[in-house]
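Hi Y.,

Following your request, here is the sequence exactly as I used it, all 444 residues.
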Amino acid sequence: MSTTKKYLHQIRRLSQALILSFALNIGLTALFIYWVVKERPPTPYCELKPADLHSLQPPLAMDKSNGEMIRHFQKMSLQQLLTKLGNKQLVENGYTQRDLAVGCLVTFHYFDLTKALLGLPQPAQQRTIAFESESGKKTEKIYVYPGLTDVHYQAIMRYALTEQWPMTSEGLFLLLQKAKGQHDPSLADAFYLTQEFLAVEMLFNRAEVAIPKKELLQVLIEGNWLLLSAFLQQQKVSQDLSVARRQRFLLDYIQQNSPTAAQLILKTDGLFALKKLNDCHVLEVLRLLKEKSPLTEQFALDLLASPRSDAVWELAARRLYEQAGEPIPEKYTHQAALARFMPQKSGTQEVAEVKIKEPTIPPMIEKTSIAKEVPIAPMVKQPPAKVVVKKATPTSPNRLYFVQEGDTLWKIAARFKVDVETLKKYNRLKSDALKVGEPLRIPT
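Below is the corresponding structure, written out as C-alpha cells. Let me know if you'd prefer a different format.
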C-alpha cells in the first residue's frame, strides 16, 4: 500500500511539473509574439500590393542631355533609328527622342528629308545642336526641325520603309565610293537619276563617242563629292555644254588621280590631249594610263614622235615598254626608243634634230666697185608653163575605210597605227569632224 502511494505521489509531482512547463512555454510564446507585434508598424486597413513595372508611369523627361542622346543615336543604324520616330519622350530644351532621331538620320545617314516630305509643308524651322564627340576632342553638330508634326513623322516613316535607298545624292555617292565597284546595281540606278549625274551625262552626250553610264560613274566615284557638287552648281548657272567645258571637267578629275578620266579624255578629246595639253598635264595622263589598251599605245607613240620635253619622251617610252611586256632600260635613250617602237622615224628624227640645232646664216655679199660695173641683164618674161593635172591614182580597196558610228580620227588612227595629222593631210580634212559613211584613205 505504501508502494502505491509512493507511485501516486510521483505521478502527481510529474503531472504538476508538466503543467508548469506547459504554462511556462505558453507564457514565453506569448511574450515573443507580443514583442514581434510591438516592433511591427501598424497594418493598414487595405494593404496594397507592389505595382507592376509595365504599369508604372514612365518619366516625363529623360535624365540625359541632348548631347548624350545624340552620341547614343550616332552608333545606331538607319533601321534602328527608325524605331525611335514614335518616341515622344522629352530629353532637353523641349526636344523629344524622335526630334533627335530625325536629326541623326539626316546628318549621319544622309536621309533625304525633302523627298520624304514631298507634298507636305517643308520644315520652316531649323536649329543647330552642338555636342562633343565620343573622344571629347572635337565638337560636332546636327540639325533638328522643331516644327514637325505627327503627319510629318508618319510621312518620314512611310518613305523610309517604301524606298530602297532613301538617301540624298551625297549619301548615294558615298555608298558607291565605299563599295569600291562591288555595289548593288539598284544603287547605281538610283544614282543615275540624281541631278549631279544627269548634268554630267548631258555634258558628254554631245561627244562624238558614246560614253556608257558605268564609265561616267567610275570617273565620278574616283573623285570627291565637293568637286561633283561644285560642277552641278556651275551648270545650274551657266548651262555650259561646250567641248572646252568637257575638257576642263576631265582635267579636274585627272588632277584627282582618276585613271578612268585619263582613258576617257583619249576617247573624246585625244587630239586635244596630244597637241594642246601642256607637259604637266600630259605627264599626269601618262602616269594614270597603266592599263593596256590601243588608245594608250597610240597616245604614247605619238608623244614619242612629238617635239615634247625629255620627261614626256621618257614616260611615253616607259608606257610603251610596259604595253609590250618588255623590261624597261635603266638609262633612257630617245634614239633607242624610236628604233624600237618607231623604226621608220628613227633616222628622220635624228636629221630633223640636227637641222634644228644648226642656225641658218645668210651669206654676206661684199660691196666692191666691180659689182657696180657689171651690167644687169633685163628680165625677160617667160611664157607661163602649162599646168599638167595628174590623174589621181586609184587607191587599193583594202586601204579604203568607211566611217562607222562612234568613230573619231583618233580611234581610226589608233586602229591602223598611223599618225592623226598624216591621216588628216592624206584625206585633206579641214576639221576633226567625221560623217558616218564617209570614205577615208588609209596611208600605207
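Confidence is low (pLDDT under 50) at residues 350-398.

Thanks again,
Q.
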